[in-house]
Amino acid sequence: KASDGAEAPDRAPAATAKGTKPPLHVGMVGYAFMGAAHSQGWRTVGRVFDLPLRPVLAAICGRDETAVRAAADRHGWATAETDWRALIARDDIDLVDICTPGDSHAEIALAALAAGKHVLCEKPLANTVAEAEAMASAAEVASGRGQLAMVGFNYRRVPATALARRMVAEGRLGALRHVRVTYLQDWLVDPDFPLTWRLRREQAGSGALGDLGAHIVDLAQHLAGEPLAGVSALTETFVRHRPLPGGPTSGLSAVTADNAGQVTVDDAALFTARFPSGALASFEATRYATGRKNALRIELNGERGSLAFDLERLNELSYHDRTEPGSYAGFRRILVTEPDHPYLDAWWPPGHGLGYEHTFVHQARDLVRAIAEGTRPVPSFADGLQVQRVLAAVEESAGKNSVYTPIAN
Ligand code: SOE
């Protein structure tokens, strides 16, 4: 039960004497958007949840010395390193948290596992299936030595999506017929937005597909409780040339230089898919949905009812119970802020709501618990590999004009 947040009260005691719990020393590589989000998770988790270990923000790592020192100060890390190999070589680091672009995930994760560390790796697990396979098999071997590895699909850890998983598992939807998922953003609409790393295949692996599609593939499979069997896909790059960045990037923003370069990833990916159970699924991932900022929406329709979730209203879950009398049935809004909802017994009173950042706190909570208990955390590197296979099948299908492409699970 370490991963769905549904167990007994786990609020941190009012006074937690420092030093009474064994420490878990975390070293994080990367300090941009995801680094800031993960820092928030590590900094907060032990203050909110009653954990068997005490996460310590031991070291943060990045290549630019001035910037990484500033990040250490800002986010509360005790020390800063400029070489991830030096971080991994440190005896006082128990867990390596990888928040870099995808092109370095495999190298850092493999080295960290070889050095005896636990690993948390941002999504998508890697840039290629081959890298993800190497990571999953190294994680499997390392698990025999008691080391654990998890991939950061944080949207499983929104209380409402965790509740949705619980409701599907309880059979409240019956056999699933449709899973409908979209992840819509619009930060690339401006053709003058610069060619940052997320737009380069060699760094990011793919575009909207790997960045957003990976999230919705993981979430859809997690909620449905089974992996996809095959896909038919279309991808498109709407703006093929963009100005080069004229300085450092920050989050999803950057300044431009005068010369231009080629965009080598997709701007949007659309695909339909089959689940082995017979349910059909549709997916849309784009950075061009004007007005949609971080609109991850999922709807599941089953023979007994439906669930719908929208990340932009993340404290709510819509539920239709088809077994209710027809004249009164309809979608109703569950306000997911009750103490018996996943993760919420440690937070605020009902109605007070959580946000995006809390998913990273919950991710840290579940990983710390798994490490203390010696249970395998989910999503595992094997789960990350399976998502990578779906992404590869999407690219293969899109390259063949949508030919249905089975996924080897
Ligand atoms: C950018 O599209 C991004 O930050 C993704 O990289 C994250 O994974 C997603 O959670 C929010 O959007």
Which radius of gyration do the C-alpha atoms yield?
A: 21 Å
* Series of secondary-structure elements, N-terminal to C-terminal: EHEHEHEHEHEHEHHEEEEEEEEEHHE
What about the largest sheet? 9 strands, mixed
Mean pLDDT: 95
* Ligand identities: alpha-L-sorbopyranose
| Helical run tally | 10
Total strands? 17
How far is the N terminus from the C terminus?
24 Å
Strand content: 15-25%
Shape: globular
Determine the structural class based on helices, strands and strand pairing. Answer: alpha/beta
Going across the major beta sheet, what is the strand order?
16-15-14-13-7-12-11-8-17
Share in helix: 25-40%
Low-confidence runs: 1-6
Describe it.
The protein has 409 residues and is α/β, with parallel strands linked by helices. The chain is 31% helix and 24% strand. The radius of gyration is 21 Å and the shape is globular. The structure holds alpha-L-sorbopyranose.
Please write out the topology.
Layout: E1 23-29, H1 33-48, E2 54-61, H2 65-75, E3 79-81, H3 84-89, E4 95-98, H4 105-114, E5 118-122, H5 129-143, E6 149-152, H6 159-169, E7 176-184, H7 201-204, H8 208-224, E8 230-236, E9 241-245, E10 256-262, E11 268-274, E12 280-286, E13 295-302, E14 305-310, E15 316-321, E16 332-335, H9 358-373, H10 381-399, E17 405-406
Parallel strand pairs: 1-2, 1-4, 2-3, 4-5, 5-6, 7-12
Antiparallel strand pairs: 7-13, 8-11, 8-17, 9-10, 11-12, 13-14, 14-15, 15-16
Bound molecules: alpha-L-sorbopyranose.
Residues 33, 185, 211-212, 252, 294 line the site of alpha-L-sorbopyranose.
